[in-house]
Amino acid sequence: MTRHRISLEEFHRMVEAGIFPEDLRLELVEGDLVEMSPIGKRHAAKVNRLLALFAPLLHRREALLSPQNPLVVGNSELYPDLALLKPRSDFYEERLPEAQDTLLVVEVAETTLDYDLKVKVPLYAKAGVPEVWVVDLGGKRVLAHRRPEGEGYGKVQTLGPGEVLTFMGVEVPVEALL
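and the corresponding structure tokens:
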């Protein structure tokens, strides 16, 4: 079996040329194209709730909210459920946001927990994303990863119902995400 790996630049040229159907959800992970699973209503609702909770940061111009949009992470292009980005006057029109532009990344895992924890979180850590939350809908918990160190995080906290996450002054009740 022969594998054909592609670069980030080749992937971008393919997207711009319209090679992929618009409704095909793909991530480029270290040269491999990975088809993402469709988003269900529960998953979508959690992302919408996150947007509502973090809206004050947008209004205060402290962060840009980027839901399910591309994020360049090393040699990969991932589509986190939500990225809070450092504000830019061009809203990243001149280039895609990169790991160093992030304040927080949130992944909502309904059917993708292993992929999020074993593939995406190490890529985020390696690229220096400062904080990643993985919302584990099945396990009714949120895994908060902080302090990137190599391909992992120096601090990983597991939070459940009744607990609160705080980010940039916004309080997020864990049960609101579950």
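(Above: one complete record from the training split.) DSSP finds four helices and twelve strands in the chain.
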